[in-house]
Every structure is written in structure tokens, then in C-alpha cells.
Amino acid sequence: MLRQTLALSVLALLSASLSASAQQITGAPGSPSATVTIDGSQLPPPPPPFGGVIKETAAESTPYWPARVVPPKGAPNVLLILTDDQGYGVSGTFGGVIPTPALDRIAAAGLRYTQFHSTALCSPTRAALITGRNHHEVGYGVIGELSTGYPGYDSIIGPDSASIGRILRDNGYATSWFGKDHNIPTYQYSAAGPFTQWPVGLGFEYFYGFLGGETDQWTPYLYRNTSPVYPWVGKPGYNLTTDLADDAIHHMRELNAAAPDTPFFVYYAPGGSHSPHQPTQEWIDKFHGKFDMGWEKLREEIFANQKRLGVIPPETQLTPWPDGQDAYGGAKLPRWDSLSLIQKRLYAREAEVFAGYTAYTDHEIGRVIQEVQDEGKLDNTLIIYIVGDNGTSAEGTLEGTFNQLTAYNGILTLPEVVQMLHYEDWGSHATYPHMSVAWSWAFDTPFKWTKQVASHFGGTRQGLAISWPGHIDDAGGLRSQFHHMIDVAPTILDAAGIKAPTTVDGIAQKPIEGVSMAYTFAKANGNAPSRRDTQYFEMVGNRAIYHDGWIAATTPPAAPWLLATGKLPDVETGYNWELYNIAKDYSEFDDLAAKMPDKLKQMQALFKTEAAANGVYPLDNSGFSRALTARPSATSGKTEFTYVGENIGIPVGNAPSILDRDYTITADVTIPEGGAEGMIVTLGGRFGGYGLYLLKGKPVFDYNFLDLKQTRWEGGVTGEDLFTRPLAPGKHRIVFDFKYDGPGLAKGGTGVLSVDGHELSKKTIEHTIPLLMSVDETFDVGADTRTPVDDSYDVPFRFTGAIDKLTFDLGPSQIKESDKPAIDEGMKKSDN
């Protein structure tokens, strides 16, 4: 009797607790099959009280299992797809000339949105997408590589801004993330973590993808959860674009086999079409000759397609080609007819490779969508397919480049002969390419500007398609409501019947600023007023404010393809403003600022209000020079680094930086009987970097200046035995000492390679890499994990001796804050 009374009392308390928090249990409480749908306001939910009976023996006791948390009944699977660097005019679905049948499939089954927006740059958009909050509110006022020590710009998603992955996971979803993760602070990439900002720390239970803004698709900077992986080794023809789809499909099949009734949330974010543009050859071949008409005629073709498809209003005007008009802040792009035959051939090739990469990416996305159907889950899956995290990229310079790292380091023009040497292998493993900005402008039709430019729709207008069978009754319909990336997370929560939490891990949450788009799903609401009436935009000083059909925007003072290498005006007072009534002027064609100064002032005041409320201040229009800002890594401020034995995969942010300074590398090695060879230390690879190694037993230091010039220090120049023979068995000290010709960026210097105190080689180089030696290669001691720094060896080129001690001694940086705004004029053109 007492036992029953106690059990009933506990059950009564449990029932009261569940009722108070609106939780719902299915199945017999306490049974292994019991499930619970939680209220969700507090994550994780408080542990339920034990509902059984505990006595001294199991025979006298009653077991009670905690109920398994499940989403509300009918909650859909969610497949969230985000491509990269694709503006509004890229996809065939939104009028482009590149076929995108997977996107067509979603649009035909659901809806296309014609006024959906990004932040104009990679990681800020992605932070807004996964949190439902404006990008400055979650630390991503700019990409992580350019982060600064202010709350709106520190690249840290705080614990007060739980991601959609965390919310869904704690409500019973199986969560996973595939592809690009550009939302980890660059100084937290290493094995030391912390991992709170990695997908597994943000609520995604499985991650397979690459870190940072981009990676080589042939030898990617790839992780599974928090461990580096190298799946291309021994696999000729490997490409990450296919591998991501393979892994996502495999993971989804595992989930289906193990827990077929558990809803999944798959965030699928491939690298396409961000540089480097690297599709397989078959996809490049599909577009041979397709862009010989040039970029102006491409714009006209896209514009006509957009009108035919109805994805722009019929009265839309095509904005003029930028010929240096005041409306474009002096930006100027060449006319196709002004180019030489060689230029036309090269530029057409660039577009063919970009198109091949885009089509290839959509094809692999289509395989993931097909897997959902093959598992019989398509009818209960919400699929959100976003075309690009910003407008098409202008970072390839006016000419395009076979190696994007040249542009990132301020080299904005390359010798034509060097470019044409890569015509046949453009897009292959031998290149790291990007295309001319003139193509990028065309692929953003009908708008002005490109990626990075948050003030105009060329940087922020994205195609969007959503399907959800049984919940969207207007298959193939169009929606013109004004929406933003922050509206995706609340749309998913709305569809799942899950509320945003008020606390997570005991921490009060910032409000989700987005609004659900689910109201647009019904055909009856096709023309409903937009529930987003205000949205600010800001990126590196370019800014805009939307309100009730109007938008005010600053005129970019410099073209983004100059990468902020010139002098910029005062960020607050030196910008002109434009004004558009986009309810009537879809493409921002007719600037009304001069005609309506009072309206403009009203909009400017609204921007300041929104900026203050969202952590936008302080404004900063410096660009890639911010890469030189010191960040709080575990190695910040260190000038001496010591390693023993093999250490591979150390990220650039945790490695000794030899940029713009003196440095000495000292390697104490032991050579075994029979000799040794292999990599002692390297950072970077085929597209820029350095390596100290033994080749056939002889010391070599190679400095790869962005695949434009190789400088090798090695023995064998004096004819003495010391310099011509391999190192004898025993202990040796190899030293490379470099004196930098500073102060300033990208200066040259003189290096000396010596062994056991004897000079082997002394050489001077004219330039050094100023800002970025590698994006996706690591600092490796004792081996080379990705691409070789030169062609004299094959990776992994493991050192076959012993590295007893490797030391880097760094001199002080020879650049100052005042040096950062202007990269040396000599770097803007390479004569190598």
C-alpha cells in the first residue's frame, strides 16, 4: 500500500510538472517506448522526476525510463541547402543560362521568392541563417578572417544566440551539417579547440566539411566532426563536390536504418560556386563556347529570361553597364568589343569553368534531394534551397586569375602570357581560379554591383525556392514579399511547431529577429503584404536601409574588386546616398535622392536607429588589410615556436607567421644510416608558401611566391663536397635565416641557407607574400599533407630522418596600423 501511495504521488508530481510546461507524453509513462514533446522554452529541458519506486532490492522496486524527446507530431524533415557566391542571375531557375534542374525541381513543387536577401558576404550571411539574428548581433559584421575586437565583429556566436541546429536537436531532431563552415573563429581551428563554435558545439551532431571561406576541391581542408580527414589520398579523380553528396547520402541512410521515424535536419552547404572554381572536366566541357557572346549580351539574355519567367516584374529596367558613371562611384568595366581576341578567349574560358562548377554543384544537390525521395520521405520534408550566400564574387579582379591567392595579396593584374599558360588546365588541380568581375556583374542581372556590396541588390538579392508537399498549395508559384536570411530559422521552427527558447543552458536568449515566411505558403496569401517591413544592411562601410517598399543606400566609394587597396573616404561622412522606391523600381534603376531629400533623411535616420540596435558600430571600411589584425589565438604574441618530431595539420592561425618580418628557422635533425630525405617543415603549397626539406639527402629551402615565381636555396653551387653530397649519417643543424627589407608590406629580403654553420646558398628576392600565404593548407612538420610547394617531390614526402628539434625565431612585424590601408603599388602588378 505504501509503495503504491509513493508511486502515485510521484506520478502526480510528474503529471503536474508536465502539465505546467505543456509537455506531452505518448506511450506508457516510464516505458522504454515512451516519448515526450517538450515545451521548448528552456533548453535543455529540466530532467523529469523519477516516476518509479526504489527499494533495497530490484525485486521490490519499479523501474521508470525517462521519455525520449521527439518533435511535435507532424514535424517535417528539413533539408536546408545553401550554395556559394551565386547572384540572382546565375541559376536557370531565376533566368540564368546555367541549367539548375535540382533547383527547378524544388521551384516546380513549391515556390520561388523574388525578394529574398543576404548580407553580401559569406560568414555573416551564414551566421544570420543559422541563428535567425542579424549578423552583427552574432559577431559576424564581417568574415572571421577580418574579425576585430568589437562585439559586432569578433566572429563569436554567443551562448545567448542558440543556432537552429541546437534548438532542433534539443527538440528531438537528428542534426547534421555538410560542406562549408565559415563560422568558426580562425584562431580556433586547431585540435586544441575550443569546439564550442564548431558545428558539434552549435548543436549539429554530425559534421563533414571544410573550414573557412573556401578550399581546393581536389585536396580540401576537410574535417569529420573535429578530426581532419584526407579522403582523396589514393583516389584519382576525387572531387569534394561529389564527396559531400556521397557522405550526406550515406549519413541519411544510416539515420533511416537506425531511427526511420526520427526527423532529420540536414544543412547542406557545398563550396560551389566560390573560388576556386574546380569542377570535373566533363562539366567544363558542357559549356564550351557558351559564353563567346560576351558579358553584355549575357546580361541581355538573362534579363529577357527573367521577364519571360516572371522572376522580375515586367516593368523592370536593366541597370546600365558600369562605364564609370557617377552612379557607380567611378567603377568601370570594359566592353566586350574592346577586348583582344586572346582576352576574349581567356575570359570566355573563365565563365565556362564557373558555369560548369555551378551546374555540377546543382547536380550533386539533386542527388541528395533524390535520396530523400528514395527513402520515401519527400512528402514530409521541408526543402529550402537558397541560391548563394551573397551576390556573385568580384574577388577575381578585372581579369580573372588562375590563382585566387594573388588577388587576396593585392596583385590585381597578371601577365597575359602567364594566364594563358593555364588556359587548358583552368579549373584543374593545377589552378586555383576565379573569373573576371565583368562576368560577376553580369551574373547579378538585373542589379548593380556584386558580392561585398551590402548597399545594393547585386550584393544581397538571392534566389530562393521552398517546397513542402501538402503544405504549399501553389506549386510553381512566385512570391514577392521582402525577406532576409534571418527569416529562415523562424520559418523552420514554425513548420516544426517548435518555439524559440527563452533560455539555453541557463542563459537568456537574444530574441530571434527573423519572421516566419510560412504565411506565404498558402495560395490565398500569394500577394499578402510582407511581414518584414524593415531591414538594415552593412558590410565594410557600404550600407542600406529598407522600409516599406523604399531603400536608401550608400554609393560604394571604391569597387570591391580593388579589395580596398586604395584610399577610402571617411566611413561616416564621406559617402553619398541613393534612394529608390523598389515597390515600383525593382532593379534600383532610378535614384530619387536628389528629388526627395526629406525622404532620404528619414531613411538615413532609420538606418542609424537600426545600426545602434544591432551592434553595427563602430563602422569600419578597411578591407583585406584587417587580415593583419592580431587575434586572440593560443599563439598570439609568441615569437619563438618549438616542435619535436612529426606535427601535421596545424592551422595557419596557430602557426608561426613569417609574413613581413625577419625570421630564422633552425632544424636539428638526425640522419640515419643510408641517408634521409623528406619535408622538414612547410606551410602552403602549389599556390603559395614555403618548404624546408631534404631532396635526395640535400637541404633545400623553396619560397613559392603565389605560383608566379619560385626561389630555391640549395647546395651544390661551390663544388665542395659539403655542398654536393647528401648529409652524412648523424646529427646536423640546418638553418634558414631571412632578413626582411622593411618596413612596409610585401617587401623583399635576403635569405641564407646553412648546414652546421657553413653557408650553402644566399639569395635575395624582390617580393614576399604580404597578407595571406594560404587559405586551406596547413603548417606541417615532418610531412606535407596537401599540395607540394614545388614540383621536385610528391606529397606526403615524409621525413625519413628524425626531427630532434625545430625552432622558429620571429622578428617583430615590420608593418604598422598606418601601413595597412595601402598595399605597395608594386604589388598591384607582377612582372614575374
UniProtKB/TrEMBL annotation:
Q: What keywords sit in the KW lines?
A: Calcium, Hydrolase, Metal-binding, Signal
Does the entry feature the keyword Nucleotide-binding, yes or no?
no
Chain ranges of the Sulfatase N-terminal domain: 76-498
Quote the biased-composition stretches of kind Basic and acidic residues, using this chain's numbering: 816-832
The membrane spanning regions, by residue number, are none
Where on the tree of life does the source sit, at the highest rank?
Answer: Bacteria
> Region Disordered: which residues?
25-50, 812-832
- For whether the record's keyword set contains Secreted, the answer is no
Entry's Gene3D superfamilies? Answer: 3.30.1120.10, Alkaline Phosphatase, subunit A (3.40.720.10)
**Gene Ontology molecular function:** hydrolase activity; metal ion binding
- Which stretch is the leader sequence? 1-22
**Family the entry assigns:** Belongs to the sulfatase family.
Tell me the protein's name: Arylsulfatase
